[in-house]
Design a protein that fits this description.
The chain is built from no helices and 33 strands. By secondary structure, the chain is mostly beta strands. A hairpin with a 2-residue loop joins strand 27 and strand 28.
Length: 423
């Protein structure tokens, strides 16, 4: 059985003991609501999330860093909605910069890399933008990266944004919807890169790729090592996954078949991708012949057969860390891919039959085409320090270097943020 070491940091809704038994981690009361589950940095040394502060009740960005002893620090306040970006005269209305029709998605999560945070936001006036923050002499300073209404070097206007992703080389990648120069409503999607430099303005957004008549309607990007994957529509009338490998083109990357889902009656819909080292994973869903929702996760890493899902609903699985068999009936979704050597790891959320309305977090390890499933945290689990798990969630980027930040809600109403080492 794979051994997981839990390091939990408390964000309590109720009064709790001062020390978490067995981990020498001080528990503290800081937030009533966690709004965006934690995402981990590309180097695995920090994670970030958004929660309401118990002091101000404002959505606040928190960040935690790994210490020399391997444990993560108590998450600390970086900035909140009342922050006024430098050079501007208004504070934030919310931290969701997406198109009005999109709603909130995990891909709108802030990201962190060392002393740089990137995020999307809407200002009090309603103007959207991509932003970044730098920790200078112990204080976070917030700056605009690009704002709605700005024009690129070709005269096209920025309209909507995905939250930017900060890479290990301080490049921020983000997707934007652009208004074509000389028009009012003719739009297209594009992905840009900006270099964030200490004490200097970031570089001008550099166009990496843009939609055309063959590939269009980009829907979220997953970034790693300054490359990315995206879901997009094609002129053949289908949705597909594409990888950008730095060569100014998008490479179609989908299975030849969608085994399990192709038994259904309805068309197959694709969820957001997750990218790492030239490989991807993504979830897809459909309806079976009885009109019941079914879903699966596909991955081409670890020498896996891309057409065969690594996990899907309505099948009995023997999962390390659980008793008996587990059947996912609600959904398997929100995967994150990480690759180390010949081993691929995919974290994902699943809804077990025993608690079909509550999600758990699981790990699929793929090596030489063989898939092994392990439980990280799941509904009904009793934690070592006490408390029964009600549900578990992960953020947009949930595994890097075998570290998985999770958000655990207990039956008592207590919410905890923790990091699980899965190596």
């Amino acid at each position: 059985m794979k051994r997981f070491s839990f390091i939990f940091l408390l964000f309590a809704l109720l009064a709790l003991p001062a020390v978490l038994k067995g981990n020498d981690i001080e528990l503290f009361k800081i937030s009533k609501d966690i709004l965006v589950p934690p995402s981990i940095a590309e180097n695995g040394n920090s994670y970030i999330f958004i929660a309401k502060s118990v002091l101000t009740n404002l959505p606040t960005v928190y960040v935690s860093y790994q210490k020399r002893n391997g444990k993560f620090s108590n998450p600390v306040h970086a900035f909140d909605l009342n922050t006024v970006p430098e050079g501007l005269s208004e504070h934030f209305k919310n931290f969701n910069p997406s198109k009005p029709s999109r709603g909130w998605t995990g891909f709108e999560s802030p990201t962190v890399q060392d002393k740089i945070i990137t995020f999307g936001g809407t200002l009090e006036s309603g103007k959207r933008g991509a932003f970044y923050a730098q920790n200078i002499a112990g204080k976070w300073h917030v700056f605009p990266l690009v704002l709605q209404g700005q024009v690129d070097k070709n005269g096209n206007k920025f309209k909507y944004f995905n939250a930017p992703y900060i890479t290990t080389d301080s490049k921020a990648l983000f997707m934007a919807t652009m208004v074509k120069m000389g028009t009012e409503n003719e739009t297209y999607d594009a992905v840009f890169s900006c270099k964030i430099r200490n004490f200097f303005r970031p570089s001008t957004p550099k166009l990496l790729i843009q939609a055309n008549e063959h590939i269009y309607n980009f829907d979220d990007i997953s970034v790693a090592q300054a490359k990315f994957a995206t879901r997009a529509d094609t002129n053949s009338g289908t949705q597909n996954m594409f990888i950008y490998d730095g060569t100014s083109q998008l490479i179609k990357t989908v299975p030849d078949k969608y085994r399990f889902l192709d038994r259904g009656e309805a068309s197959i819909q694709l969820g957001g991708p997750t990218y790492y080292a030239g490989k991807i994973a993504f979830f897809a869903h459909s309806f079976d012949k009885n009109n019941k929702y079914i879903s699966a996760i596909y991955c081409n890493a670890g020498d896996n057969n891309f057409s065969k899902p690594i996990v899907h609903t309505n099948k009995k699985y023997k999962i390390a860390g659980t008793k008996g068999y587990t059947i996912f009936t609600g959904e398997v979704s929100n995967p994150t891919l990480f690759i180390k050597g010949r081993k691929a790891s995919v974290t994902f959320m699943g809804y077990p039959k025993t608690n079909s309305k509550r999600s758990g977090v699981y790990l699929a390890t793929i090596k030489s085409g063989k898939v092994k499933l392990s439980a990280i945290a799941f509904p009904g689990q009793i934690l070592p320090e006490g408390g029964e798990v009600k549900s578990v969630q992960i953020g947009a980027v949930s595994i890097r270097h075998d570290k998985v930040p999770i958000m655990v809600t207990l039956k008592s109403g207590i919410v905890k943020i923790g990091v699980v080492n899965v190596d």
